[in-house]
DNA sequence: CATACGTGGAT
DNA sequence: TATCCAAGTAT
């Protein structure tokens, strides 16, 4: 069966959106454009991150920093602390840079053109198109994982991702309307999130069911095809839970780029495939101490490797020589500690006292 | 074009 | 337990 015209398809999905749009804290009602600052902030947070995870962070951020100028004036450490737990911390560093650029060079006004947005830190093809469409009503071709899936199924594209991305974008471009482009993009993303889901899609609820090639062929739940991902190796490290006489714990800031860049950590050895023994690890210790291994292990899975951390506890002999920050136990919650390091803290508090 | 980059929930 | 997945970007 041939597809309906693009105009008919967009009309149908917009009607579906008018009835089914999810109410989200960063979203304007159907038919309206949203605050560009809210759209930008939410889109950065939503990169590879679920709506459920983002919502409380978004509300915290806009309450504490109501405008992009407020965010630009904040310290990077405050932003990293507020971002802690959300993951992909380069987003927080780029968020700060982007806010400062918009505040300083554009008086706090976000660009409304896709190309200008695309040049800002942390804004790639998807986010530039999303902001242009959702915050400014520009007819940009918005392509995210949801829309890729919807389009792959509509046209029964069986070639695997990521190589087929340009083809999917070309097909999507042919459907994108010039009227209500922001609602259209959000409608497709909502459709992908709630109906055209990765597993067990609810095709009977889909406004595009009669036009969907994959559904007709009974292969909707198999698309889009993806290349197999490489196996995750395991890396090991040894973390030093270091106490001062007054009970403060030694923290250290990680390098500004790379994994957990700019975040705080419990000092540790490098993370490598081979396990560490204590004698060897002592060279990495932040300060001299008698180290006592704690029972058990802290495990954490990152995107591309598993981590096993043995935690050793010790009292610093010469705390004044330690390189880092002595933090009282009740102040740990206010530090920019990523989840893996909060696991180390929890483990140490459970085992070392 | 491939890889690095977090986390938590669902299956 | 293992794997997949979520509104991707930078290099």
UniProtKB/TrEMBL annotation:
The EC number(s) attached to this protein equal 3.2.2.31
Residue stretches in coiled coil: none
Q: How is the cofactor bound?
A: Binds 1 [4Fe-4S] cluster.
Top-rank taxon of the source lineage equals Bacteria
An MF annotation (GO) of this entry = oxidized purine DNA binding
- Spell out the Gene3D superfamilies in the cross-references: Helix-hairpin-Helix base-excision DNA repair enzymes (C-terminal) (1.10.1670.10), Hypothetical protein, domain 2 (1.10.340.30), Nucleoside Triphosphate Pyrophosphohydrolase (3.90.79.10)
From the UniProt record, list the reaction(s) this protein catalyses.
Hydrolyzes free adenine bases from 7,8-dihydro-8-oxoguanine:adenine mismatched double-stranded DNA, leaving an apurinic site
Classification via InterPro entries: A/G_AdeGlyc_MutY, DNA_glycosylase, Endonuclease-III-like_CS2, HhH-GPD_domain, HhH_base_excis_C, MIG/MutY, MutY_C, NUDIX_hydrolase-like_dom_sf
Q: Alphabetically list the UniProt keywords.
A: 4Fe-4S, DNA damage, DNA repair, Glycosidase, Hydrolase, Iron, Iron-sulfur, Metal-binding
Which cofactor names does the annotation list? [4Fe-4S] cluster
The protein's matches in CDD domains, at most eight in alphabetical order, are given as: ENDO3c (cd00056), NUDIX_DNA_Glycosylase_C-MutY (cd03431)
Report the sequence similarity comment from the record: Belongs to the Nth/MutY family.
Protein name (database record):
Adenine DNA glycosylase
């Amino acid at each position: 069966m041939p597809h309906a015209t693009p105009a008919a398809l967009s009309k149908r999905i917009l009607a579906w959106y008018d009835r089914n749009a999810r109410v989200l804290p960063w979203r304007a009602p159907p038919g309206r454009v949203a605050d560009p600052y809210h759209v930008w902030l939410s889109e950065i947070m939503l990169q590879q991150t679920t709506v459920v995870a983002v919502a409380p962070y978004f509300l915290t951020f806009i309450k504490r920093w109501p405008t992009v100028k407020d965010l630009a004036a904040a310290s990077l450490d405050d932003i990293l602390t507020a971002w802690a737990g959300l993951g992909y911390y380069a987003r927080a560093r780029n968020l700060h840079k982007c806010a400062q650029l918009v505040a300083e060079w554009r008086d706090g006004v976000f660009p409304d053109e896709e190309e200008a947005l695309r040049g800002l830190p942390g804004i790639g093809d998807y986010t530039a198109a999303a902001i242009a469409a959702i915050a400014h009503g520009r007819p940009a071709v918005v392509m995210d994982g949801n829309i890729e899936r919807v389009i792959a199924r509509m046209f029964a594209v069986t070639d695997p991702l990521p190589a087929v991305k340009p083809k999917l974008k070309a097909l999507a471009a042919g459907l994108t309307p010039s009227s209500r482009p922001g609602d259209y993009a959000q409608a497709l993303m909502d459709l992908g999130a709630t109906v055209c889901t990765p597993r067990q899609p609810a095709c009977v609820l889909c406004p595009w069911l009669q036009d969907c090639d994959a559904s007709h062929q009974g292969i909707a739940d198999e698309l889009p095809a993806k290349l197999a991902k490489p196996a995750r190796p395991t890396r090991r490290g040894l973390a030093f839970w270091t106490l001062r006489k007054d009970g403060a714990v030694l923290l250290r800031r990680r390098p500004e780029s790379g994994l957990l860049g700019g975040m705080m950590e419990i000092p540790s050895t490098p993370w490598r495939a081979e396990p560490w023994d204590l004698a060897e690890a002592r060279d990495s210790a932040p300060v001299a101490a008698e180290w006592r291994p704690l029972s058990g292990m802290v495990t954490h899975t990152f995107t591309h490797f598993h981590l096993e951390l043995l935690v050793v506890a010790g009292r610093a002999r010469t705390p004044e020589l330690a390189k880092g920050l002595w933090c009282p136990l009740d102040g740990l919650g206010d530090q920019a500690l990523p989840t893996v390091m909060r696991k180390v803290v929890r483990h140490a508090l459970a085992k070392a006292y």
